[in-house]
Amino acid sequence: MEKITKEVYLKWYEDMLFWRKFEDKLAAVYIQQKVRGFLHLYNGQEAVLAGSLHAMDLSKDKMITAYRNHVQPIGMGVDPKKVMAELYGKATGTSQGLGGSMHIFAPEQGFYGGHGIVGGQIPLGAGLAFADKYFKRNAVTLCYMGDGAVRQGSLHETFNMAMNWKLPVVFICENNGYAMGTSVERTANHTDIWKLGLGYEMPCGPVDGMNPVKVAEAVHEAVERARRGDGPTFLEMKTYRYRGHSMSDAQHYRTKDEVEEYKKIDPINQVKEILLEKQYATEEEIEEMDQRVKDLVKECEKFAEESPYPEKNVMYDTVYEQEDYPFLPHKL
Amino acid sequence: MRTIQFREAVAEAMSEEMRTDDSIYLMGEEVAEYNGAYKASKGMLDEFGAERVIDTPIAELGFAGIGVGSAMNGNRPIIEFMTFNFALVGIDQIINNAAKMRQMSGGQLNIPIVFRGPTASAGQLAATHSQAFESWFANCPGLKVVVPSNPYDAKGLLKTAIRDDDPVIFMESEQMYGDKGEVPEGEYTIPLGVADIKREGTDVTIVSFGKIIKEAYKAADELAEEGISCEIIDLRTVRPMDHDAILTSVKKTNRLVILEEAWPFGNVATEIVYQVQAQAFDYLDAPIQKINTADTPAPYSPVLLEEWLPNKNDVIKAVKKVMYK
Ligand SMILES: Cc1ncc(C[n+]2csc(CCOP(=O)(O)OP(=O)(O)O)c2C)c(N)n1
Ligand SMILES: [Mg+2]
């Protein structure tokens, strides 16, 4: 694995902070009804993404996840302005305003969505890996899912085939403790999600998902295994989301104290402490980064606000590859 | 009469039936401790306990099938899908097992089950979360399909659906759960397969069902000011369909507009069009008009969604077209 240098820590800090503030902004504009529908925020889980990216070869490796998906494409290199614009439903958005919050796509940067049906992306991730293996691209797919999604049949069917065919895929469960209001304890007779790999003899294990170093190490090992042709790995990232499931969630299923406990091991703070401790950055330099993050979030908001809405024909033009498809009329 | 919300009507129907029949249970994601993702089972865990109000993992194929299996062995399950979009994950159990079991066992095994949850669009939720599958389920022999549009109908129809000895698909809407309506305190039921004339009128028949019918009400109000009288028929049950109610009305008004929130290809409206032209061709004074969602997956952007979804203006245009106005 590439060494985790001062530069990496600096990047992690600024990236994770940006993701957090970017989504705080989304929450704010959601309340103003500029962004609608559901809004699932990544708040608290940033170390999983930061650590994973460190272990990837961004020139060819791929990523796919569920609907908690605003910041992953940014990490993969997508212009955050386009992600913000998508949530505003604007023509300049990643999907021209057609997908919205749950469906961000940016295949050019290796980000394959953005999937709203729980568990639906798990076979897709294996399918991406299938094609990479088929075409001998030596690339690896990172396929993410929630703790709720691992109970879907799609995971079990996919694990079996992915292992049998040694597909170059890393399955990563982001265990944030809850699927909406349902805690992990209430969905199975044991809570070690990583053990689901054992039945398929898939290499598997738990990872501290609040620490980007631990994440990077575990993902690196898994990515290398996949790249060698030795097949999939299943990692359970122990992480946490501070905010509700989506925007309307009274959160009666947990206590405020529990949330506060996790905030004590907040990934951004952990990295900030290292920056200061190891004297990788001074307080002033950190303030400079904070300011850059603020400015960039503002820029994204401005871009989204000022962008035009899509033309009506894109709703049709994007359905089929065929250009003159004869759609039925639906009204006069 | 007292006024309650749609979600309360749903909870009352389930609770009343569960009080009188121990074999009924409610199962689904977030139905128990969370009181329902949309609070349509509020208080039921407290009253009936965890053996009868059961939270599941996210595993639609599994719990739909467990529902069917238990119905083969004495239970009368109510299976909730958080929305019917997610029922697709479990649709094999509905179509291949629930709908087929009675016939292929030569009548030995009936499946008294209700699959319920919200259907169709609910704001800017985009392609995977805005689908209306009424016509898909209605296409399948062995199923009955119920789609109420107000709290009174929801309660009466759901009680009947639960008592029905065959599988019933019962479709609600996220956007209706907060709707208020008059619901009597006392016991009542509404039979399946019987449409309801929501407004009497003389000039044009509008057939609709589910939450989109509200656009027909708004259109009828505006048209009334112009002196056009609309008769609005709420199908309430899509399968079996109350063809008589539609035909009787069309024979009176001689004009028909159908409003359905669904893709336009081969939907509930096209079935009605076939029946009416076959049985009342000579009564029609104008070609039938149907209004649907656009022939595309639902878009996210507000400007596109507005174009995609039918509204009262579309109904007004269609009514005027069949009136040659
Ligand atoms: C097949 C399906 N069933 C139900 C839902 C509704 N739903 C959306 S998110 C969610 C919880 C998922 O939890 P988890 O997998 O832990 O992911 P997290 O939200 O914690 O990231 C549920 C039940 C859905 N979108 N798809
Ligand atoms: Mg979760």
UniProtKB/TrEMBL annotation, chain A:
<keyword id="KW-0560">Oxidoreductase</keyword>
<keyword id="KW-0670">Pyruvate</keyword>
<protein>
    <recommendedName>
        <fullName>Pyruvate dehydrogenase E1 component subunit alpha</fullName>
        <ecNumber>1.2.4.1</ecNumber>
    </recommendedName>
</protein>
<comment type="subunit">
    <text>Heterodimer of an alpha and a beta chain.</text>
</comment>
<dbReference type="Pfam" id="PF00676">
    <property type="entry name" value="E1_dh"/>
</dbReference>
<dbReference type="GO" id="GO:0004739">
    <property type="term" value="F:pyruvate dehydrogenase (acetyl-transferring) activity"/>
</dbReference>
<keyword id="KW-0786">Thiamine pyrophosphate</keyword>
<feature type="domain" description="Dehydrogenase E1 component">
    <location>
        <begin position="15"/>
        <end position="311"/>
    </location>
</feature>
<dbReference type="InterPro" id="IPR001017">
    <property type="entry name" value="DH_E1"/>
</dbReference>
<dbReference type="GO" id="GO:0006086">
    <property type="term" value="P:pyruvate decarboxylation to acetyl-CoA"/>
</dbReference>
<dbReference type="InterPro" id="IPR029061">
    <property type="entry name" value="THDP-binding"/>
</dbReference>
<dbReference type="InterPro" id="IPR017597">
    <property type="entry name" value="Pyrv_DH_E1_asu_subgrp-y"/>
</dbReference>
<comment type="function">
    <text>The pyruvate dehydrogenase complex catalyzes the overall conversion of pyruvate to acetyl-CoA and CO(2).</text>
</comment>
<dbReference type="InterPro" id="IPR050642">
    <property type="entry name" value="PDH_E1_Alpha_Subunit"/>
</dbReference>
UniProtKB/TrEMBL annotation, chain B:
<dbReference type="InterPro" id="IPR033248">
    <property type="entry name" value="Transketolase_C"/>
</dbReference>
<dbReference type="Pfam" id="PF02779">
    <property type="entry name" value="Transket_pyr"/>
</dbReference>
<dbReference type="InterPro" id="IPR005475">
    <property type="entry name" value="Transketolase-like_Pyr-bd"/>
</dbReference>
<dbReference type="InterPro" id="IPR029061">
    <property type="entry name" value="THDP-binding"/>
</dbReference>
<keyword id="KW-0560">Oxidoreductase</keyword>
<keyword id="KW-0786">Thiamine pyrophosphate</keyword>
<keyword id="KW-0670">Pyruvate</keyword>
<dbReference type="InterPro" id="IPR009014">
    <property type="entry name" value="Transketo_C/PFOR_II"/>
</dbReference>
<protein>
    <submittedName>
        <fullName>Pyruvate dehydrogenase E1 component beta subunit</fullName>
    </submittedName>
</protein>
<dbReference type="Pfam" id="PF02780">
    <property type="entry name" value="Transketolase_C"/>
</dbReference>
<dbReference type="GO" id="GO:0016491">
    <property type="term" value="F:oxidoreductase activity"/>
</dbReference>
<feature type="domain" description="Transketolase-like pyrimidine-binding">
    <location>
        <begin position="4"/>
        <end position="179"/>
    </location>
</feature>
